[in-house]
Amino acid sequence: MAYSLDHLLVIGISSRALFDLEAEDEIFRQQGLDAFRSHQLRHENKVLNPGAGFALVNALLKLNALVPERRMVEVVVMSRNSSETSLRIFNSIKHYGLDISRAALTGGAPLSPYLKAFNVSLLFVLTRR
Predict the structure, then answer these.
(1) Which of 116, 117, 94 is nearest to 44 (CA)?
(2) Distance (Å, rounded) from C-alpha 14 to C-alpha 28?
(3) I want to staple 20 with a disulfide (CB 3.0 to 4.6 A). Which of 7, 49, 103, 125 is the partner?
(4) CB-neighbour burial class of residue 73 (10 A; exposed 0-12, middle 13-18, buried 19+)
(5) What radius of gyration do the chain's Cα atoms show?
């Protein structure tokens, strides 16, 4: 049976909002996808620094501890990265002890179709400067 997200506050957050990926974004924009992929794979065990949305997500996830038998918040990483280039993100999630296990990894495709599928209530993304 599928796990229902209907009665939860579902937060969608981009990987760039959750973690500081400015240097990696610069590699992608200046050198392209292959260089970005190579960089992420070479550094997959290097923990990323928290990004602009990290503290908010961390605080929201702590709401789940208020009523242990009832989960209130679910966080979904929403990323145009592939599963291959996202391993570093999930290693960092594990390092920080964030209760995040869901993701929409689109491999470059738009994220919008996944918003309804995950019942996202709030989407937090970081746009380029």
Answers:
(1) 94
(2) 16
(3) 49
(4) middle
(5) 15
Assess whether pLDDT exceeds 60 at residue 112.
yes
Contact criterion met (CB below 8 Å) for 42 and 69: no
Rounded CA-CA distance 59/72 in Å is 12
Kindly report, residue by residue over 59-79, the tens digit of the pLDDT: 999 999 998 888 899 999 999
How far is 79 from 67, CA to CA, in rounded Å?
A: 30
- Cα separation of 115 and 82, whole Å? 17
Residue 1: band (very low, low, confident or very high) from pLDDT cuts 50, 70, 90: very low
Give the integer Cα–Cα distance in Å for 54 and 98. Answer: 10
Contact status, residue 19 vs residue 47, Cβ threshold 8 Å? no
